[in-house]
């Protein structure tokens, strides 16, 4: 099958392209660096022409309310180009529990992206993943101050990007789900403990202070970002760190 992987040079996109090509499909990566822009629409018709499946793994450059316009415009352009090109399956990557955290602009933007896809003219699949393990470094940097890092005890179920890419490639190669597949890492941590574990394994002497008001995940209620019933990925966090 032929795949146009939009955002195919990013963390997940590059691994999805590799997986699909290793499985003897024909997957082509597209992004701004290859001359395709989902916001201006430049190069999109050519990028999706002849593709059986479009996998959209682009990401907004910011997590603030500008991300709503990013996902609205990019999905409008991509769906129009894919519809014109006769694409039979459109796949996006969203976030487990995304509809339960309307306090976050970025999460509302991802819900908007899902809704635009579901209302559109193309058979579709939505893969929702938990937070990528790679994302921990950014999470730690947001609230670092000298020797301390403040983190809430929000339950988190981190997943390796390789496992996300495997699941996205599998879903993209199958029949459209007309719905959502949830995928998650094999273990649930509280975010503050995950921070402590990360620092200790890296030999970093800073201290994590539990602070229910700190950082982006402070607004998450209960265990909204975890899913015990999700398809569980194999990679454990400490193995990934090692
Ligand atoms: N972080 C998490 O924990 C998490 C969890 C679940 C789901 N997700 C979702 O996973 C998806 C992929 O994330 P990622 O970390 O792999 O992203 P990433 O590494 O930041 O890659 C983003 C890709 O989008 C491309 N891109 C950005 N703006 C573009 C534009 N205007 N036109 C064309 N291409 C553009 C980039 O290419 P250029 O650099 O060439 O522009 C790059 O290939 C996102 O939609 C995100 O919401 C993330």
Any overview of this molecule?
It is a single chain. The protein has 242 residues and is α/β, with parallel strands linked by helices. It has a single domain, classed as NAD(P)-binding Rossmann-like Domain (Rossmann fold), CATH 3.40.50.720. The protein has eight helices and twelve strands. It has helices at 11-22, 44-48, 66-84, 105-119, 136-142, 161-173, 191-201, 237-241; strands at residues 2-6, 26-30, 53-56, 89-95, 124-129, 144-145, 148-151, 155-156, 180-184, 189-190, 207-210, 231-232. The chain has a seven-stranded parallel β-sheet, with helices on both faces. A three-stranded mixed β-sheet has the order 6-7-11. It has a two-stranded antiparallel sheet with strand order 8-10. Strand 3 (53-56), helix 3 (66-84) and strand 4 (89-95) form a beta-alpha-beta unit. Helix 1 (11-22) crosses helix 6 (161-173) and helix 3 runs parallel beside helix 4. The longest helix has 19 residues, at 66-84. The model has no long low-confidence stretch (mean pLDDT 97). NADP nicotinamide-adenine-dinucleotide phosphate binds at residues 7, 9-13, 31-33, 36-39, 57-59, 93-95, 110, 129, 131-132, 135.
Summarize this, please?
With 242 residues, this protein is α/β, with parallel strands linked by helices. The protein is 36% helix and 20% strand. The protein has one domain: Rossmann fold, CATH 3.40.50.
């Amino acid at each position: 099958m032929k795949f146009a992987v939009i955002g195919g040079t990013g963390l997940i996109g590059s691994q999805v392209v590799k997986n699909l090509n290793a499985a003897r499909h024909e997957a082509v990566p597209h992004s701004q660096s290859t001359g395709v822009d989902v916001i201006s629409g430049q190069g999109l018709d050519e990028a999706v022409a002849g593709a059986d499946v479009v996998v959209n793994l682009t990401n907004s450059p910011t997590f603030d309310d500008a991300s709503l316009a990013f996902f609205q415009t990019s999905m409008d352009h991509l769906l129009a180009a894919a519809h014109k090109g006769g694409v039979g399956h459109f796949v996006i990557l969203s976030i487990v529990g995304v509809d339960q955290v309307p306090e976050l602009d970025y999460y509302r933007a991802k819900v908007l992206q899902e809704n635009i896809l579901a209302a559109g003219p193309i058979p579709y699949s939505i893969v929702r993943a938990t937070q990528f393990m790679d994302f921990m470094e950014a999470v730690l940097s947001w609230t670092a101050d000298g020797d301390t890092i403040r983190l809430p005890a929000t339950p988190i179920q981190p997943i390796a990007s390789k496992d996300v890419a495997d699941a996205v490639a599998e879903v993209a190669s199958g029949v459209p789900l007309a719905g959502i597949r949830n995928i998650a890492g094999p273990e649930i941590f509280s975010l503050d403990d995950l921070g402590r574990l990360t620092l200790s394994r890296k030999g970093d002497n800073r201290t994590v202070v539990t602070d229910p008001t700190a950082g982006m995940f402070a607004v998450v209620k209960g265990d909204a970002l975890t899913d015990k019933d999700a398809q569980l990925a194999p990679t454990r966090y400490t193995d990934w760190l090692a």
